[in-house]
Structure formats: structure tokens, C-alpha cells
Design a protein that fits this description.
With 137 residues, the chain is mainly α. It has a domain of 94 residues: Tetratricopeptide repeat domain (Serine Threonine Protein Phosphatase 5, Tetratricopeptide repeat, Alpha Horseshoe). Helix 1 runs antiparallel to helix 2 and helix 2 packs antiparallel against helix 3. The relative contact order is 0.08.
């Protein structure tokens, strides 16, 4: 068991090295393997989250940071995860434009052909409504 545990620690170190070298997807692969074996490896989870973030996978990273906030027992790692989650939230809020909806007011001026068709429709409706045999469907 000690050799297996040691190899997981070595894998975490390899993942951290890949992260520090800027090989974020390689770090994700290595660290995910560690977490498949040891889901509560907080250091691996933190570096996995940071690797996802730097690889452009912001929402995946945020999910990992939230997991650490909710479950991590290591206060130093939890504080780092909290800082990262706050930074991501702030960045996303700043990127989101104010949601507004503008509707173009319809033009009251209509082409003469359209006005003539509308007038005919109104006349037909009036005739049909006064006709006792007219049924509206």
C-alpha cells in the first residue's frame, strides 16, 4: 500500500509540474487519474481546478473550486479555492453586459398598397358581420 500511495504523490507532483510548465491539459489528465484513485486528494483537486481554469474551461474550474469550498478540510487549500471562486464570479459579472431588450416601434406609415388592402379587409369584415348568414370561425 505504501508504494501505491507514494506513486499517487508522485503523480500529483507530476501534475503540478505540468501545471507550472503551462501544460494544462496534461496536468488535467494526470491529476484526474489521481482523483479517480483518491477523490479527497485536496492538492490534486486544487491544481486540477487551476489547470481547467488556465485551459479556458472556466465553468469546469468553478465547479471544482466550489467542491473544495464545500468539502475540503485543509484550510489553506480551501482559502485558495475560495479566493479563486470569488475571482471567477467577479470576472464573469464584469463580462456580462447588462441585459436589456429594445423593441423597435412599428412604423405608422404604411405603403399605399398595404393601406388599400387593410381598408378592403376592414370593409369585408364590416359587411360579413352585418350579414346574418355570416359565421365566424
Amino acid at each position: 500500500m505504501a508504494t501505491h500511495r507514494r506513486s499517487l504523490f508522485e503523480m500529483v507532483d507530476d501534475g503540478v509540474t505540468a501545471y507550472r510548465d503551462g501544460n494544462f491539459m496534461q496536468a488535467v489528465q494526470i491529476l484526474q487519474q489521481v482523483l479517480d484513485e483518491e477523490p479527497r486528494n485536496w492538492r490534486a483537486k486544487l491544481y486540477l481546478a487551476m489547470s481547467h481554469y488556465h485551459a479556458g474551461e472556466t465553468f469546469t474550474a468553478y465547479g471544482h473550486f466550489r467542491f473544495l469550498l464545500d468539502n475540503c478540510t485543509d484550510h489553506e487549500i480551501r482559502n485558495k479555492a475560495e479566493s479563486a471562486a470569488i475571482a471567477i464570479n467577479s470576472a464573469l459579472k464584469n463580462k456580462m453586459p447588462q441585459m436589456t431588450c429594445t423593441m423597435k416601434k412599428p412604423s405608422l406609415a404604411r405603403p399605399k398598397e398595404q393601406q388599400a388592402r387593410d381598408d378592403e379587409d376592414v370593409e369585408l369584415e364590416h359587411v360579413n358581420q352585418t350579414n346574418p348568414y355570416y359565421k365566424s370561425f
